[in-house]
């Protein structure tokens, strides 16, 4: 029997569930629209099922007919392509993107995102112009941001600074737990924190100062939820939380926190194969910060740009951004210790790891190897998921250099570490790296590695 989770592997399945439609009902509506337009082709339950399951892609004409049935503008069909445009017919688009950028709109989004819903898997909900539109809205509203100051005498208990400090400490602990455990189980705790903070925003009494702090906590909780859902490949859910975090950062008047969210969003879309979308998000963040902003944050943003350029195959652009990242990070090391806690992870080991990943993407193992080695030698052993990913990239670099024994060694280490967290992203990184060894098919060393990998890649 199919589970609810299985039903959400495709955006068309999400539409059917949210609208209470069966395959037969959608097919009937589709045939009706065909008749109205005087078209001859038809559709039945089986054809709609093939579209929903990913076994068949509808023709351009069929997609435009379906868009009319679902109420999606035809420009989005052309702009986004199949199946991404279908997300515009779901609550992801209607409930997260469309509400106004105001305190009322933010609270509406928070109530929806923290409600009891089935996790959304499989596809990015936002890309292209709609994704850049969200970033542009953030920048425009942040430029005129004012603190959240909803204080009503009839609301609940007053939020004190001491309570908010405790709530902030809980979020800091979740961030550090993520280094060890990843999103498989931890995302449920993060969602509970976000739900609690959102309830306080809706019911408690707070002044302007505590209101800003409360919405800063909501921003970080929503960002963390986005990151943890991304870690388990629940991409639509991750984007829902990221957009929520962007909206909340405006209420908190926290531009650096919002820029951090954009950087996290960019990482998701670049690894899903949209490096140009990632660069658009990162340019929005860096343009808004200008020459201001924390140097460590600016270094992280530059490193993300480098990764996007590398994935796009632009070695020159990648190298330029890596040089900027190193310069900003050196400046951060000599600046006063004023960096926000949420950027703690970006240090020289992380920059080396990201630079190494860039050169792996650009198939330059000789440049990647020393950087990855440096990162692994200095990175904390607590960073289990990160070490998993970097050992996998080290294995890929060795594979690109035709050093099979060393490649198998690193992939084996990555598999052992991945078993501790079951991070979907880590396992997928190993899978992609292992594919570079296909030319050695049948080699006993590869057979041994594959048997080890099968124990975690269920």
TrEMBL record:
Q: Which CDD domains match?
A: HTH_XRE
Which InterPro entries does the protein's record reference?
Answer: Cro/C1-type_HTH, Lambda_DNA-bd_dom_sf, TPR-like_helical_dom_sf
Q: So which residues are the signal peptide here?
A: none
**Superkingdom, taxonomy of origin:** Bacteria
Protein's recorded name: Helix-turn-helix transcriptional regulator
